[in-house]
Design a protein that fits this description.
The structure is a single chain. The chain is an alpha+beta fold. Helices cover about 45% and strands about 20% of the residues. It has a 5-stranded antiparallel β-sheet with strand order 2-1-5-4-3, sandwiched between helices. A 5-stranded mixed β-sheet has the order 7-9-10-12-11. A hairpin with a 6-residue loop joins strand 1 and strand 2 (about 50). Helix 9 packs antiparallel against helix 11. The protein is elongated and about 85 Å long. Bound molecules: adenosine-5'-diphosphate. The site of adenosine-5'-diphosphate has 21 residues, from helix 9 and helix 11.
Length: about 375
Amino acid sequence: MNKDTGESTLPEKNIASRSIEPPLEDMAGIALESANVGIWIMDPSTLKFLPSKRTKELFGFLPEEDMSFEDAMLKVADKYRRSVVQAIENAFNKKSSLYIEYPVIVVSDQKQRWLSVTGGFSSSTVSDSYFSGIIMDITEQKQSDLRRSKFIGMVSHELKTPLTALKAYVQMLNNWAKKQKDNFSIGALSKVDKQVRKMLNMINSLLNLSSAEAGKIHLNKNNFQLDLLIKEVVEETLFITSTHPIAISSCASVNVNADREKIEQVLVNLLSNAAKYSDKNAEIEIGCSLSDNHVEVNVKDQGLGVAPADIEKLFLPHYRVESKETEKIAGFGIGLYLCAEIINRHNGKIWVESEPGKGSNFKFTLPVS
Ligand code: ADP
């Protein structure tokens, strides 16, 4: 307040009295940079890439240095580069929005820095459209996720040993009850067996989550027949979850070189999701088809389906669709993340074709030799 005139000297007053206001885009840019958020723009026709100063910093470049899209991709940790490029190409081809998380190796601080990237198109016509978005440093959040998942890994490991012993004893008792023709015990033990198997599946997921988040999924590859594994998993799923009929559509005999236990987990996750997210008794279909260099497996349900905005995030850790229908369905949001990690580690692809209310068709490929 000015003592003599009684007028306010606050800066807003001065700004308000300016005749020219800065454009909204500039102000948004300044606000984002001050919040340590990087901005980038890409011209889809020329592939010209324009990063802001903060974006360059996040990739380990100096603000005055040039940074092309290829330069940025070279900083992405080797294991993630392929899936990052794939996600960007996918967003480009489908003109859809983008959300990815990945680590970059920044030599100056000798550390992995985790980034999250969002992107979208400015208009639906190709000619005048720009692909742009923001980049954020999410290293701290990732480190705390890592500490949590290490703990989960340790606990699950401890839980697995007694549960495996329990499973073996239940099977022994079941054999004994069969010899004695004790129908009551046979029925009760079969129920215990189902629950123990469900728990073992959950524990295996938690164990794999902890190795996936540490970037250490270890593959124990062997040659096996995928069509036989599919049959086994369908039988096991029908035993544990008898609420939905499962039909095996065409599935030719096919040999793959892969980690049998982990592919089994992918199939178990996809089939149990198909049952979880569709009405009781609605049929689930599983099939596989062979092409030149890969086999494609698909798990189709007639359930809730997934909205386009959720599709791209479905395979991220802990992502769950929030809706009236899903709020009563229990889950941790890690099943699909694990499926994606396992399939990517096998150099395969995983995706979903779905529409809300019209069911989902989850598909994955595996290379065949
Ligand atoms: P969870 O089922 O434990 O929540 P997932 O990672 O397996 O975790 O799935 C992530 C989310 O994807 C689920 O919360 C659900 O909203 C959605 N989803 C997965 N499978 C299906 C499906 N077959 N149909 C509809 N939505 C699905």
